[in-house]
Design goal:
Blueprint: H1 26-43, H2 64-74, H3 87-95, H4 97-113, E1 124-129, H5 140-147, E2 151-154, H6 160-163, E3 171-174, E4 177-178, E5 181-182, H7 186-198, E6 202-207, H8 217-226, E7 231-234, H9 239-247, E8 259-264, H10 274-279, E9 286-291, H11 297-306, E10 314-319, E11 327-332, H12 336-342, E12 349-353, E13 380-383
Helix pairs in contact: 3-4
Length: 385
C-alpha cells in the first residue's frame, strides 16, 4: 500500500455555540424526523431540522442537535413543581419531553402488570460493548440485546452503522463525552439508567470497545447494583485488540514481548498522573497501549524514554481504527509526537508502543532491500483501503 498523507476531516461545528452539527445515516434521519413530528403534534410547536449533512460512519460528537431541539421545545413548558423525590424525573422531563412521556407510559404499564402474577418488576440494564468501530466486529449477543431494547443510551464512539441496528421502536439518547464537553454528567447517566430500569424497561447502554476497559462501565454497574437493579455485561472487542489485529501487530510475541499493558492518557481530576503510570510501564519486553492519549502523548513519550525505553522503540498511532476513516502513523517513539501533530490526527486515536509494532507489514521498509527497517525514522501515514 502506498503511503499517503492528508489532513483528517474534522467535525463541522454549528454557528450556535450550544453544540456541534451532526451527521445522520438515512435511517437515523428518518427516525429523528418521526420523533420530532410526534413531539410537534403533542406540543403544537413547529420545529424544522436541516438534515442535509454528509453521512459519516462515526457519530464522533453524537446526535446532539436532536436533543438540543428537545430542550428548545421543553423551554416553552411550565416549570415542574419542586419535589426532591421527583427531582430526577422532572430533570428528564424538562430536557427531554419524549423521554418523560415514555417513562410515564412504562410506569402505567408496570402498574397494570402488578395485578398479574410475576408482573410489574424492574427491568434490566445491559452494558454492551460495540467494539472498536467496524460494525462487523459487534458480537451476536450484542445484536440480540440491541434488538430487544426499549431505550438505548450511547456514547460518542458508537458508529451510526451500529445505531442503525437498533429496532425502530426503541428510543435513542446520546450521552457521550468529549474533552471539554459532556452531553450528560455521569450522575445524570446513572439517573437515566435507574429511572427507566425501575419502570420496567430494557435499557441498553452502548459503549465503544469493551464496557469494562476505560469505559466507566464499572461505575455504572456498581451504582445500579446498589439500587437493586440487575446489570448484565456484554463484552466487546476492545480497541487495542481490534486495531492490533487490523494492523497485524501481535500484542505479545514469543521472544519479543511477554506482556501487554493498557494505559489511559488522562486521569480523573485528582487521580493518578498518567506520567506516573508511564514510569512503571517503561518495560522494553512489554507492549504498551495508550487509550485517550493524544493530548498527553508528548509528555508520555518523554517519560517513557526517561524511564528506560529506547527512543528508537517502534510505535504507531491509529485514528478511527477499523473503520473506513482509519489513518495510521508509524515512527520511532522519539519522533511519534511530532509526526502525529504533522499528520493532524484527531480523537479517537490509539497509540501502540513496543518492538512488536515493527512486526506489522505497515512498518516502513528499506526501499533497496525490501526488508523491514526496525529502526527506521521515516514517517508513514496510511489511509484505510
Amino acid at each position: 500500500m502506498a503511503a499517503a498523507l492528508r489532513c483528517a476531516t474534522l467535525p463541522e461545528y454549528a454557528a450556535s455555540s450550544f453544540m456541534p452539527t451532526q451527521y445522520h445515516s438515512p435511517r437515523t434521519t428518518q427516525r429523528l424526523q418521526s420523533h420530532l413530528a410526534r413531539i410537534n403534534a403533542q406540543l403544537n410547536t413547529n420545529v424544522t431540522v436541516n438534515t442535509n449533512h454528509t453521512p459519516s460512519p462515526f457519530t464522533e460528537v453524537g446526535k446532539l442537535h436532536k436533543f438540543s431541539l428537545f430542550t428548545t421545545i421543553a423551554q416553552s413548558l411550565p416549570s415542574s413543581p419542586s419535589n426532591k423525590e421527583r427531582e430526577s424525573e422532572h430533570d428528564i422531563a424538562l430536557r427531554l419531553p419524549q423521554l418523560h412521556q415514555m417513562l410515564q407510559l412504562l410506569r402505567k404499564k408496570q402498574g397494570s402488570n402488578k395485578e398479574k402474577r410475576g408482573g410489574g418488576g424492574p427491568g434490566n440494564v445491559y452494558l454492551v460493548g460495540t467494539g472498536p468501530g467496524d460494525p462487523e466486529l459487534v458480537t451476536l449477543k450484542a445484536l440480540r440485546v440491541i434488538h430487544a431494547a426499549d431505550l438505548v443510551l450511547y456514547d460518542r464512539l458508537v458508529s451510526t452503522d451500529i445505531l442503525d441496528m437498533v429496532h425502530s421502536g426503541a428510543t435513542l439518547l446520546y450521552v457521550g463525552k468529549a474533552a471539554g464537553y459532556h452531553s450528560r454528567t455521569q450522575d445524570e447517566i446513572h439517573q437515566l439508567l435507574l429511572s427507566f430500569a425501575q419502570a420496567g424497561a430494557t435499557v441498553v447502554r452502548l459503549k465503544g470497545g469493551d464496557p469494562l476497559v476505560f469505559g466507566r462501565g464499572g461505575e455504572e454497574m456498581d451504582f445500579l447494583h446498589q439500587q437493586g437493579i440487575e446489570v448484565k455485561v456484554v463484552p466487546g472487542i476492545t480497541a487495542a485488540s481490534g486495531i492490533a489485529a487490523e494492523l497485524g501487530i501481535p500484542l505479545t510475541h514469543r521472544g519479543v514481548a511477554n506482556s501487554v499493558r493498557f494505559l489511559t492518557g488522562h486521569s480523573r481530576k485528582g487521580g493518578t498522573d498518567p506520567q506516573f503510570v508511564a514510569k512503571h510501564a517503561a518495560d522494553p519486553e512489554s507492549t504498551i497501549v495508550i487509550y485517550m492519549g493524544l493530548a498527553t502523548l508528548p509528555a508520555l513519550a518523554d517519560k517513557l524514554i526517561l524511564c528506560g525505553l529506547s527512543p528508537e522503540t517502534p510505535a504507531a498511532a491509529v485514528e478511527h481504527g477499523t473503520t473506513s476513516q482509519q489513518r495510521m502513523v508509524f515512527a520511532k517513539l522519539q519522533n511519534l509526537p511530532d509526526e502525529v501533530i504533522d499528520a493532524h490526527l484527531v480523537s479517537p486515536t490509539l497509540i501502540i508502543i513496543g518492538k512488536v509494532v515493527a512486526l506489522s507489514s505497515y512498518w516502513p521498509t528499506n526501499s533497496s532491500t525490501g526488508k523491514q527497517e526496525k529502526n527506521s525514522c521515516a514517517l508513514e501515514v496510511y489511509e484505510a483501503a
